[in-house]
Amino acid sequence: MEKIKLTTAGGRPYYDYENTMTIGNRGLALLQDYYLHEDMAHFNRERIPERVVHAKGTGAFGTFTVTNDISKHTKAKIFSEIGKQTRLFLRFSQVAGEKGSADSERDPRGFAIKFYTEDGNWDLVGNNTPVFFIKDAKKFSHFIHTQKRDPKTNCKNPTMVWDFWSLNPESLHQVMILMSNRGTPFSYRHMNGFGSHTFSLINKSNERLWVKFHFKTMQGIKNFTGKEAAEMRGIDPDQATRDLATAIANKEFPKWAMQIQIMNDEEAHAFKFNPFDLTKVWSHKDFPLIDVGIIELNQIPDNYFRDVEQAAFAPANVVDGIGYSPDKVLQARLLSYPDAHRYRLGVNYEQIPVNKCPYMTANYQRDGNMQMGDNGGNNPNYRPNSFDDIITDESYKEPEIVLESNVADYFDRNANDNDHYTQPGNLYRETLKEEDRQHLISNIVESMNGIAGEMRTIIIDRQLCHFFRVDMKFGLAVAKGLGIIIDENKLERNY
After folding, report:
1. Residues 54, 73, 439, 466: which is the catalytic one?
2. Residue 358 lies in a domain
3. Alpha carbon 140 to chain centroid distance?
4. Does 157 participate in catalysis according to the annotation?
């Protein structure tokens, strides 16, 4: 193996990396020992800002292979022919946990995919759940604050958590998923992924359809119980991270089947609720899953920081044939995600190798932090100009969006759409098995028992009212677990 010389960051070969230059054996250190200062200064700056959400995570490279023809629905080149392969990077994460938190904490899991397509990078940034806690992004920072640390004690605070949830019944659907065993997946390989939001597909005739993306694990669903998850936190806090790396190293490449649901405009207008509501799902019976392709992860990054920590996903990154929807939370994420990356990684974060489009890019962005290319060379940095040959291609123009109103106002997100109980009730009665229902109840009771202070009774009563509306037996079981005696005869009259 060829020997490589130790050098400074500027390339100067350096010899003594263990001993500081001093005046005599026991004397004062000299300022001229540049390598000492370079090494310490770089060390002081090794930690970039932690992600506000999705801080703890891991990821891998892989491929997406088309197995079914959906070209009638979309002109996206990634789906252009059966057998076509596209390289990708997938990052798994926790939503609320800090970078050092345990993998088995009860928390939603991020499921973010970057597809390196010939029309640019497509980032599908979702979770392991098909819904979320809120339906308007103005509530997002407030919700996340409740999942983080109490500003007074710097400890996690169940009172904050349940106070927010009890005041926001739109959270119920996601809360019940989180409090079930789905909130503690055994590993990243054994959970499903979802785009969660409604997006749009645009076909060759420039017709727009609404779409939801699903990723079904081909390893089978496997979750911890609450007790098992708590034990694993003490045994191996990095269990899911280690599991993914070990599986790929052993060539047990994890796979997911990509499937979609499709809805047209007419169906969207006639739908019984807002089809762009992030707190609700589309029935598989009414909108069956359509097979699209297979995702396989087969390469762990050689350097975690370079690829996983610096990976930057943004729902704004769509490609020709894939578009947005009026989902209010999605609309806000189009701004907030790139903004977070510019703060954390620098304005040129998309030049970092893991984020860089592997195909040609051309624009007039120049200068700024983390500029790692040729900065446009001697080409013009303005448009229009008389010198370069960059063109605009009209074939990439998206079809117009027909608005339902020309009135701009602050509309109540729940107006004519305030049924927060039917889908959680269906989840409880029809989706969860009896054992899962018992685990859900015990997990909720354990969490709500942490509610403290003078508002404890009010918060618990308010949340129980929501649970009763979801399902009477469910509410009674939670109340019993909390030691609260309920008169069932009065309940029959009130609910």
Report:
1. 54
2. no
3. 13
4. no
Buried b (16+ CB within 10 A) or exposed e, 461-477: ebbbebbbbbbbebbbb
Q: Give exposure, 410-428, as e/b (b: 16+ Cβ within 10 Å).
A: eeebbeebeebbebbbbbb
Task: Give the 3-state secondary structure of residue 124.
Answer: strand
Which residues of the chain fall short of a pLDDT of 70? 489-495
Share of the chain above pLDDT 90, in %: 79
Q: Is residue 281 part of a domain?
A: yes
User: Whole-structure pTM over 0.70, yes or no?
Assistant: yes
Q: Are 343 and 429 within one domain?
A: no
Q: Which of 73, 121, 127, 439 is catalytic?
A: 127
Which token pair is 104? 């088995």
* Residues 40 and 96 both lie in one domain: no
Query: Are residues 64 and 84 in contact, defined by beta-carbon separation less than 8 angstroms?
Result: no
pLDDT tens-place string over residues 270-326: 999 999 999 999 999 999 999 999 999 999 999 999 999 999 999 999 999 999 999
Rounded CA separation 127/195 (Å): 7
Residue found under tokens 């960059």: 390
**Same domain for 74 and 40:** no
CA quadruple 147, 149, 152, 155: dihedral sign? positive
Q: Are 117 and 87 in contact (CB under 8 A)?
A: no
Q: What was the pLDDT predicted at 147? A: 95
Q: CA 226, CA 449: separation in Å to the nearest integer?
A: 15
Whether 66 and 5 share a structural domain: no
Query: Which residues form the domain of 1?
Result: 1-46
DSSP state of 68: S
User: C-alpha 64: how far from its chain's center?
Assistant: 19
Q: What is the CATH number of the domain that holds 9?
A: 4.10.91.20
Q: How far is C-alpha 407 from the chain's CA centre?
A: 32
pLDDT score of 69: 97
- 298 assigned to active site: no
Structure tokens at 132: 């979320």
